[in-house]
Design brief:
alpha+beta, 3-stranded mixed β-sheet, 50% helix
Length: 78
C-alpha cells in the first residue's frame, strides 16, 4: 500500500486519486496512517454492496415489525 501525507490531498489530488484507482492508498497525518482511500470497485470487492441494516427491536421500522409478526403467526399455524 502506498502512503501519502494528508497535505498531498491538497497539493497533488490528481496523483493521489490515480494511485488509489490502482490500489488502496494510506493517507497519513504526522507520519501515522489515518485513512484509506480506494476506488469504489475495490471497496465493493472487499466489503460487498450490502444494503442490509440491523435494528434494535425497539428501533425497528413498523413495516419490519409487522412482517415479523405475520411470519410468527404463520409459524404458529403450522
Amino acid at each position: 500500500m502506498k502512503h501519502h501525507p494528508s497535505t498531498d490531498l491538497k497539493q497533488n489530488l490528481g496523483d493521489v486519486l490515480a494511485a488509489a484507482s490502482q490500489q488502496p492508498v494510506s493517507i497519513t497525518r504526522h507520519n501515522r496512517p489515518r485513512y484509506v482511500l480506494m476506488s469504489i470497485e475495490a471497496y465493493e470487492a472487499r466489503f460487498g454492496n450490502d444494503s442490509r441494516r440491523v435494528y434494535a427491536a425497539e428501533d425497528a421500522p413498523l413495516q419490519h415489525v409487522e412482517m415479523l409478526e405475520e411470519y410468527a403467526a404463520e409459524l404458529d399455524r403450522d
